[in-house]
Amino acid sequence: MKQQWRTLHQGITKLNFSQSNLHGKHNYDSVKYGSKFLIHCNTLIAVNGRHGKINEAETIFTNMPIKNTASWTAMLTTYTQNRQIKNARKVFDEMPQRTTVSYNAMISAYIRNGCNVGKAYELFSVLAERNLVSYAAMITGFVKAGKFHMAEELYHEAPLEFRDPACSNALINGYLKMGEVNEALRVFENMVERDVVSWSAMVDGLCRDGRVAAARDLFDKMPERNVVSWSAMIDGYMGKGFFQEGFCLFMDMRREGLVEVNSTTVTIMFKACGNCGRMPEGMQMHGLVSCMGFEFDNVLSNSVITMYSMLGCTDMANKVFCTVSNKDIVTWNSLISGYIHNNEVDSAYGIFERMPEKDLISWTAMITGFTKSGRVKNAVELFNMLPEKDDFVWTAIISGFVNNKEYEEALHWYARMIWEGCRPNPLTISSVLAASAALVALNEGLQIHTCILKMNLEHNLSIQNSLISFYSKSGNVIDAYRIFLDVIEPNVISYNSIINGFAQNGFGNKALSMYKKMQSEGHEPNHVTFLAVLSACTHAGLVEEGWNLFNTMKSRYGIEPEADHYACIVDLLGRAGLLDEAIDLIRSMPFKFHSGVWGAILGASQTHLRLDLAKLAAHHINELEPKNATPYVVLSNLYSAAGKKIDGDLVRITKNLKGIKKSPGCSWITMKDKVHLFLAGDQSHGNIEEIKATILTMYREMQWLLFQQDILGYTWCKTTLLLHTLLNLSMNPCNEINGLRVESWSKLNTVSVTLTFVITKVQLVKMRFGKEVDEDFIHIESFSRKTSRSEINNMEDITRFCNLYVDLDFQCRVLTLENIIELEAANATPYTQNLKGIKKNPGCYWITVKDKVHQFLAGDQSHGDIEEVKATLLTMDKEMQIFFPIFCTA
């Protein structure tokens, strides 16, 4: 009999490791015939439970004539291992005797499956004899549930012999997973006894937090290291771009020989070689791994394929791919992504068609590849072939339209995505916001913003950054700034977006102040940051600040200025009249001449009437962009301005003989779901006479406000100033202001249509200063003088100039009757009037609605519908907040 059970026990043990069905049948037969040896039955239950054979385990447990505590615990563990918590709790409740082991099993089950920390703590509270496992499991549960204060309390309640290292490690890992590195470090430093797990977890946490130097200090102090600590430190170096340090550390790991390199470490090295563009080291790693006897499983092979693809060696990637015997879907996708990364779309599609099975990642990669190469039609065809689509596939096709500047199509496909019931992700939202910003489609953008609020994504950082960019490009820098203030932890992209928004809308000093705030918060600027700040300095005329920033790029931050940065600084010098200095800077550029740089010189030459430099700039632009009509037009105008009309005509004739045509300016606006499109010089719109009449009417009604500035903290700026300029343009058939030709008829009509639809609702618009504007404030008289000097080049300059009147805290509102009374009272200089007995005639204003004239006098509130008027004006306040950015940008 002993020999018989020894054989059975050996069979059970063998089953535990080999999962042999033959042994399983033999063991089941033994139970079926009523074996009374509990140890073997309990082992059978445990073995079947570990292999997921719940029915077999239940059969054994049910047929056992006698059960002990170990039997109940084995069945309980079987259910918990297979996530059948209800059945596990049922067994737990039916147990005649419960031990610490059974309590721990049930507590751990609640923690692992859904983190039901409440029920877990109920069991923990009634557990009399708690051990190390009990405290560690419960602390882990509290940490996973985010209840760190309760985890800390329980940690301090635990006996000292249980606290270190297991409970401390649980607390450390919990803090690190939540990103609370400093809290984890505090627990680590207070530990009396640390093991290699404690040290490795802390090194990895510091590396993930970007504190590589602190991690290295800790790493050097470790009494012993395992492969996890080595890999964490190497990955920390590689993640921060310190390739040489990481590579040397890997070689030290091999030289010491105390810890064997595993596949995780090697995968980190392959990824780093690819990301950092280190071809020699990558090939060295490939050969080294082969010599070390590593069996190239799919994970390692995929890493090598990805590495060679990142290095641009698709041939080598393909060779490695061909050597993989058992290719999985990740292997196929790795090669497809590699070809797409190197713009070899046709090769990628060839691999795609050969795939035995395709998943959504394969389809998404291929769609992205087609859109990346500009083949949007192929991407759409592939998209329509896809049987099932998730949010990532939709995002790929929508982003493709945006990247190819097909913004209307992007919005159309987004609407189709919503209609088909697919929930957009943050990347989708960012793409459609970019499309809305490019089209200045404010209504669509506002609808998307509403969807963001409904989906509770308003605090997603990437979406907040996209909203900042959208509102800035739409001219509504106030809402952009409000969203920026709501960002809990702004990153470099957040600061770049708001700085660029201020720069685009003429708030040069605000852009500089945000740049300084960015530095004080510890964020390092990048190429995009400096481009935005230099642009702000250019439009604000801050020559000294711009020049200092340009020099700071390389000296302080090690950033080499690119062509766009040179174009900005050249434009800055040119606008300030320092054209000779700008030419010297161009000649010192470390790379070939850029059309944008010479374009800046050309524009400055036109402003300052430097015909010699205009000819030089036009010559270089013609070499770089032979089909560009701008240098011909500018040069012809300059010749005419210099009294050389014949030379100007010759330039235009030359342009015509070469077949070069200037693209007409185009503007559009959507009103009541109808798009109104205007081209420069185009007067074919059906309501063109009504448009002109509207501008004339509004000009007459608002003319008396043009020079009323800074009254009781209010100023009349953007609307009146823009109307004054546009009126001159619309009434002048040559599109000239004080002798300056302005090609902006299309933008004029766009604003005019806007006014046509809004005039029946809004008669007066005011902008309120939240605080005094210092150097940004420029008087309207100075604008008139600037216009007479021909320094206003285009409508963008006019809009930027208008924006200088407005500080961050301004609010766009309708002027109520009370405000009219205050303005009139403030403007009457009451003390002088009273002494002289002079009475001021009250201001009079009227509007015709439904053939009825409504007249208002200053201070008069006798109108029969005065309360309704006030309520209407209050309601319009919110409408104007939405509408005004389009009004100003146009």
Automatic annotation (TrEMBL):
A molecular function GO annotation: RNA binding
A Pfam family assignment: PPR_2
Highest taxon listed in the record's lineage: Eukaryota
Gene Ontology BP, a term: RNA modification
Sorted UniProt keywords: Repeat
PPR repeats: 68-98, 99-134, 164-194, 195-229, 328-362, 390-424, 491-525, 526-556
Name recorded for this polypeptide: Pentatricopeptide repeat-containing protein, mitochondrial
Organism: Mucuna pruriens (Velvet bean)
Gene: PCMP-E63
